[in-house]
Design goal:
α1 runs parallel beside α11 (232-250). This protein has a single domain, classed as Rossmann fold. The chain has helices at residues 29-53, 70-76, 96-99, 105-110, 130-133, 139-142, 145-158, 172-184, 194-201, 203-217, 232-250; strands at 5-7, 57-64, 86-90, 117-121, 161-169, 224-228. By secondary structure, the chain is of the alpha/beta class. It has a six-stranded mixed sheet with strand order 1-6-5-2-4-3, with helices on both faces.
């Protein structure tokens, strides 16, 4: 079984070295969908155990270029999580109130509590990628944030939160097709914004910024995975494998039951 690309700490990352169209060793779609369903079921059970254990949390960070499939990954690869046990947080442009605080303020407020699973659709990495590429802040502001992010994530891990970060890697041509599909479909046109085209013109700068961010912040305690995302069903299976394996390593346990329950009859 091919494994997803885990970025080792200290790696200099050039996203041009990774093939967004890679099969990741996954060739048969029927078998892939069967395995995905099995993973979803296993994750649902493990999430229930994590909730019952009430000692730790799991944070899943999804990043990627526009149309890379963050929403689709949540709908398909992570669909088994009970909404009562899981929080999905989409990060948009910061509000005035959020801008009046440090860049991690709004992120820390959204971190999952013990027993829960948090899924970030975009995250604090916007503050070292989008801010950099769009020149919303000078280098002297965004560059020190790498160190702050590593410290922040180390704090979360020390407090019982396991972190998994997935970069959904698509090609520029695949993005073109997906943007055009949105324009051509009246039911999906609402997703399109002209700003997507502005960011597309900055493709190379975004690739450089994401590569730097991934390389500087992939650590033993909070690793990055680069996911080939040109094929949606392969992307979903790879992400489900990562999350299932992470939960299995966490191995949450049901708490000890009360004594004397054997033979008890409810009347």
């Amino acid at each position: 079984m091919s494994q997803p690309i885990k970025i080792e700490p200290g790696t200099v990352v050039d996203l041009g070295d990774f093939d967004p169209g890679s099969s990741a060793g996954i060739e048969d779609r029927v078998l892939a969908e069967t395995e995905l369903s099995e993973n979803v079921g296993a994750m649902e059970h493990l999430a229930t155990r994590l909730y019952a254990e009430h000692r730790r949390a799991l944070l899943i960070v999804l990043q990627g270029m526009d149309t890379s499939g963050k929403d689709g990954t949540i709908r398909h690869a992570l669909r088994g999580f009970n909404p009562l046990l899981c929080d999905v947080v989409p990060f948009k442009a910061p509000t005035e109130t959020e801008l009046d605080h440090d860049f991690l303020w709004r992120i820390h407020r959204a971190v999952p509590a013990r027993s829960r699973i948090g899924i970030f659709n975009r995250s604090h990495y916007e503050d070292v990628v989008t801010v950099r590429v769009r020149k919303l802040a000078p280098k002297r502001v965004w560059k020190p944030r790498f160190k702050a992010i590593n410290g922040f994530e180390r704090l979360l891990v020390a407090s019982g939160t396991t972190i998994v970060k997935c970069f959904l890697h698509i090609s520029k041509e695949e993005q073109r097709k997906r943007l055009q599909a949105r324009l051509n479909d009246s039911d999906k046109r609402w997703k399109f914004r002209r700003g997507d085209l502005d960011d597309r013109k900055l493709w190379d700068a975004f690739q450089q910024a994401y590569g730097d961010a991934i390389g500087r912040t992939s650590t033993e305690h909070a690793p990055w995975y680069v996911i080939p995302a040109d094929t949606k069903w392969r992307r979903d299976l790879v992400v489900s494998r990562i999350v299932r394996e992470t939960l299995e390593r966490m191995d949450p346990r049901f708490p000890a039951e009360e004594e004397g329950l054997d033979g008890l009859v409810v009347v």
